[in-house]
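Changelog-adjacent note: as of this version, every example in the card shows the full chain rather than a window. The one below runs 79 residues end to end.
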Amino acid sequence: IVFEKMDKRLIEFLLDRCEKNKTNIVEMTHEHIAMELGTAREVVSRMLKQLEREGYVQLGRGKVKIIAKEKLCDKFATM
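Full-length structure tokens:
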């Protein structure tokens, strides 16, 4: 995972968390996600905002809701 592009790592992280927790919501702050991925919060926030604009996720305070899981999986597969 470490040598993959950060956007791909972020998507993989979100999908894995949802799979493990059996839900479409990741209850973590951007800061915590950044620490898990070994990057800056600003990077995670920017990428999540882009995913939100593209209609894959919905951002809330301390959580990320995946609203188009199939499309997000497809995006991950083509990266």
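Structural remarks: The mean pLDDT is 92.
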